Amino acid sequence: MDIIELVKKDLDKRAEIGLKKYGERLKPNNGRDALQDAYEEALDLANYLRQAIEERKVPDQCPSCKMGIHDISCPENPVKSLVRTNEECE
């Protein structure tokens, strides 16, 4: 299925939700401020987008030891197993 068809299905679902919630489909001159409603929806969208961006970031700290994520002394650092101390080399 192509994207346009998926969007059409989503629009149909939203129209049905609106019909059940308000008893009619969206129409002009319904007493609501469409521009204000759209602006508020866009603000919600901006929040969801920012949330997704933040969730994709690599953390600055290891969640378990609270050290820098690249700190070699962190026991969970995957590179640590590749590094030997002076005592191990003797």
What descriptive keywords fit this protein?
single chain; 90 residues; mainly alpha; 52% helix; elongated
Structure report:
The protein contains 3 helices and no strands. It is an all-alpha fold and about 90 residues long.
Helix-strand category: mainly alpha
Give the overall form: elongated
| End-to-end C-alpha gap | 64 Å
Number of strands: 0
Mean pLDDT: 82
Ranges where pLDDT stays below 50 over 5 or more residues in a row are none
Oligomeric status: single chain
Instruction: Indicate the proportion of strand residues.
Output: under 5%
Major sheet attributes: none
Task: Provide the helix percentage.
Answer: 40-55%
Rg, Å, rounded: 26 Å
SSE series: HHH
Number of DSSP helices?
3
Q: What is the gist of this entry?
A:
With 90 residues, the protein is an all-alpha fold. The protein has three helices and no strands.
Outline the secondary-structure elements:
Elements: H1 3-22, H2 34-56, H3 86-89
